[in-house]
């Protein structure tokens, strides 16, 4: 089968992801929109991740770059560096996108009325290790439409979390990323980038559920929650300092309180989600 030049690059950073990487890749290969490429940046995997990827033997997987161990942010940046298309989606190794995800994202960002948008984002479901759909205590959603940084940043800060979503919930323009790059940090790598992209253009909410984010006991563990709380708390203060004309003192105060509440909500939810 002949494939056209890619309009969108799906960039998958991996590290010991053999358990779910095949499902993740299949979710991309089975898209209704086929003008894409998949590029892989592997971060020193010691399991069968790379071999599983190679076994697909699919021409749409155009690059597999194996790195020595680096930071997650560096691996994300390398994955994007491999991209050759004008639109980019970063997809983590255990998440999945629904069949019409790329079609709807590409269509939205290709419309002339949305040429001022640096990225689009959608709502996602929450699933467990075995793919069971679960209740999400921190899920946020936006009405479909364009949002400027002055509209979106206060809402982000007040949320005390990441209402835009994890990487698979976002597709951004390559040219916008070049202005905003690189990915930085540890626990708010994605949210930090979404704000930097907002500094280059609007965010476009699609108002639909188009992907699923996989959680496990480790990702919702108490120690990790403490670290994420500290990072989100600091991020909140940084946004107040960096954008004092957009983020008010009250926004910052509400966000810090909400961050505290969200941390306990995650701990409570983890006992219910992972009890079986």
**SSE string, helix = H, strand = E?**
EHEHEHEEHEEHEHHEHH
CATH domain class name of the largest domain:
Alpha Beta
Q: How many strands appear in the DSSP assignment?
A: 9
Unreliable segments of 5+ consecutive residues: 219-224
Write down the CATH topology of the largest domain.
Answer: Spore Coat Polysaccharide Biosynthesis Protein SpsA, Chain A
Q: How would you sum up this structure, described in words?
A:
Residues 9-136 form the Glycosyltransferase 2-like domain. GO terms for molecular function: hexosyltransferase activity. With 276 residues, the protein is α/β, with parallel strands linked by helices. The chain has 2 domains: 1-94, Spore Coat Polysaccharide Biosynthesis Protein SpsA, Chain A; 95-276, Spore Coat Polysaccharide Biosynthesis Protein SpsA, Chain A (Alpha-Beta Complex). It has 9 helices and 9 strands. Strands 1, 2, 3, 4, 5, 6, 7, 8 and 9 form a 9-stranded mixed β-sheet that branches. The longest helix is centred in the last third of the chain and has 25 residues, at 249-273. Residues 219-224 have low confidence and may be disordered.
